[in-house]
Specification:
Largest sheet: none
Strand content: under 5%
Number of helices: 2
Shape: rod-shaped
Helix content: over 70%
Structural class: mainly alpha
Number of strands: 0
Radius of gyration: 18 Å
Distance between the termini: 35 Å
């Protein structure tokens, strides 16, 4: 997740300070890809947290 954050910050920096339209467009594409990957990772993390919570609830009942 940290690596994705760093890559996303880099893409945003390239969007803001790009020297040509082609470089800015590539940075925007990179941003979209990274945001999708970050969303996928965060969704998976929430699912795992939910599973761990269910396990914890089950363990405390016994």
């Amino acid at each position: 997740m940290r690596l994705l954050d760093l890559q996303l910050a880099d893409a945003l920096q390239r969007i803001r300070h790009g020297s040509s339209e082609d470089l800015i467009e590539q940075a925007k594409q990179d941003e979209r890809i990274l945001l999708r990957e970050l969303d996928r990772l965060m969704t998976r993390m929430r699912a795992i947290e939910g599973q761990l919570l269910q396990i914890q609830k089950t363990a405390t009942r016994h």
